[in-house]
Design brief:
Elements (H helix, E strand, L loop, with lengths): L1 E13 L2 E4 L5 H8 L4 E10 L8 E2 L5 E5 L10 H16 L2 E6 L2 H13 L3 E5 L3 H6 L3 H20 L2 E4 L4 H5 L5 E4 L10 H12 L7 E6 L9 H13 L4 E6 L5 H10 L5 E3 L5 H9 L3 E4 L8 H8 L4 E4 L13 E2 L4 H10 L2 H15 L4 H20 L7
């Protein structure tokens, strides 16, 4: 069977291979080739002439990459016709479609699949309402249309895989075949990780800086790092000693300006993007992880931090409350509540939350989730073979 996979993800082509920033790596794409004979990925492409060692290999056997032109801007509407032509051709030649939403390519592909009578499955990884509403004034205009369109796409899909257990299911329901299964890929959880974390907490002295960390793009304001910067400014003026180490790709000039204005530029360190392996080293060296996003599905970065025993706090956004102790959740954008959470995270609380984080992360064990995904993809493919009659 031949599968078409649709998403806005940008793949980087270097010589004869395609690479990813991590979200759609070779290992991720091989989840589909375990079930389908051939996978065609329609997405954005960017050719590079100097290799970036922060990129992850995406090319693998039985996966073909097809470029879709960027048709999102008004000035690029002429490219929409070309995109439709490419996608329609690929849909015609495939047995089924998996579209990852929210994405413009995924949404267009599901629309064209409906018209051609092809079965499609949706992987729901975030909330388009939150994404657009918290992006800009233009985003607030687009948000209602994106919400209603996505809600219909999900409702009409033959199968839906959500990354959350509750949040996205409530907002974008489907009454057919569904599963809540995070796309996080954790390494094996070793008890020594938790032991080292507890030793680190026990070694903290009164004069030590408490290092906060966030892993997220730094060039989009809905990730919320600015609120953490403002919070540590207020707390440090009250005699606390917080630093904030930020990992993420993109232009950090806005966040630097916030730190300068708040008088904590010496307390905020921008580490840029890190390879996946180095992210775990970074997590082992911070004291508290914070996810201040105003838009999320179920953040892999938070699950990864918890797998390293990081005491963690986060906003009320998306699936974040599904992961955290309710005592350490703050309203998104609330500097006051972030301050209150950080004050409450004393050494005793850090010890308790480190244990809780590590135990919660075990629910996202790679082998367990991989088996659940495999079974769901197989059930979807069985539904295709039986004319779409397979239901949960």
């Amino acid at each position: 069977m031949k599968l078409l996979f649709a998403h806005d993800h940008t793949f980087y082509k270097y010589k004869d291979n395609f690479y990813s920033t991590g979200g759609l790596s070779k290992a991720v794409l091989e989840r589909y080739t375990k079930v389908f004979d051939e996978v065609i990925v329609i997405s954005r492409h960017k050719r590079i002439y100097k290799f970036d060692d922060k990129l992850t290999l995406a090319s693998t056997e039985r996966v073909r990459f097809v470029e879709i032109p960027n048709f999102k801007s008004i000035k690029s509407q002429f490219k929409l016709f070309k995109a439709k032509k490419i996608i329609s051709k690929e849909i015609k030649e495939c047995d089924s479609l998996i579209a990852r939403l929210p994405s413009s390519i995924g949404s267009l592909a599901t629309s064209l699949a409906e018209k051609s009578g092809k079965s499609y499955m949706i992987e729901m990884v975030a909330c388009p309402w939150d994404a657009y509403w918290n992006h800009s004034l233009k985003g607030k205009i687009i948000a209602p249309y994106a919400y209603l369109t996505t809600k219909k796409r999900v409702k009409d899909a033959s199968s839906v895989m959500y990354v959350t257990r509750e949040f996205l299911q409530r907002r974008y329901p489907n009454s057919r075949m569904t599963i809540g299964c995070s796309d996080v890929a954790l390494p094996q959880l070793d008890a020594n990780i938790l032991e080292r974390r507890l030793e680190k907490i026990n070694s903290i002295t009164r004069n030590d800086s408490i290092i906060l960390g966030t892993t997220a793009a730094v060039n989009v304001r809905y990730k919320g790092q600015q609120y953490v910067i403002e919070a540590i400014s207020l707390l440090n003026k009250q005699g606390y000693n917080f630093e904030y180490h930020v990992v993420g790709r993109g232009d950090n000039s806005f966040l630097k300006s916030v730190a300068d204005k708040a008088g904590v530029s010496d307390k905020v360190k921008f580490l840029g993007s890190l390879s996946h392996d180095k992210v775990f080293d970074y997590l082992d060296n911070i004291d508290i992880y914070i996810q201040p996003s105003k838009q999320e599905g179920l953040p892999r970065a938070l699950v990864e931090a918890m797998s390293r025993g990081c005491p963690s706090i986060g906003s009320t956004t998306g699936g974040i409350p599904e992961l955290l102790n309710k005592e350490f959740i703050f309203s998104n954008g609330s500097v006051e509540e972030i301050c209150r959470n950080l004050k409450a995270m004393n050494l005793k609380a850090m010890h308790e939350e480190a244990i809780r984080s590590f135990e919660k992360a075990k629910e996202y064990d790679y082998s367990k989730l991989d088996m659940e995904r495999d079974n769901f993809y197989k059930a979807f493919s069985l539904g295709i073979n039986t004319g779409g009659k397979n239901e949960s």
